[in-house]
Amino acid sequence: MVDDNKQAVRGFFEAVSDRRPADLPRFMAHDVVDHNKIIHGEADEPGAAFEGLRRQLAAFDPLTVHIDELIAEGDRVVARVTQRGVHGGAHPRMPEPTGRGFDVEAIWIFTLAEGKITEIRAVSDRLGLFLQLGWDWPQI
């Protein structure tokens, strides 16, 4: 089970990095909940992760996620990753595209059931992301 869960997470990151959003249902449950909000106000409801990932792929091209470390126990997989991309596209909750690149580290925690990701939590270097892209820090 642990190895299958790790393989599902690898497949998820490969689909994101290879810009294959149509393959995401192979790795994510239809009602997956993504608690990782890069942009304030993104939906945190079952299934919203699919649209959120599509929007991020539209905003960041290229976007790659390199797995630096993968740890699994039971129904959980933790990935330490390096995320790289260029802000070249539009996103309704992001500033206008800057054309600038970024390279940040992140920790993703996945919960899986029956070989599919059911829940995502992540912590990333958002300050580094904002600084590298030239974005203003959000005022909430």
From TrEMBL:
Pfam families named among the record's database cross-references: SnoaL
Highest rank taxon of the organism: Bacteria
Signal peptide: none
Organism field: Streptomyces crystallinus
Protein known as: Ester cyclase
Annotated InterPro entries: Cyclase_SnoaL-like, NTF2-like_dom_sf
SUPFAM superfamilies hit by this protein: NTF2-like
